[in-house]
Model the fold of this input.
Amino acid sequence: MAITELPEPISREEMKKNEVPIAFRDRCAGLLIPLNKCRKEGWYMPWNCVEERHDYEHCQYLDFKRRVRELEEFKKVRDSKE
Done:
């Protein structure tokens, strides 16, 4: 399941129910839940859950690019006001 855009964020209650650590509660938390489940079921073997891990890491990358784009837009607006 290759992702092409950021998934919708899940609710705080859903994150709390699935025990997502606070540091990982972002737009990609919905992909972290099945990844952690797969990791626990596969005894954290590195060759398990390859697709889930790739999707989660790709989501993190897309989120990073989104934040950089927002920062650049903010800087443009800020510089145009000066």
Q: What stands out?
A: The helical segments are 12-17, 29-41, 50-81. Residues 50-81 form the longest helix (32 residues). The chain has a mean pLDDT of 94. The chain has one domain: 12-80.
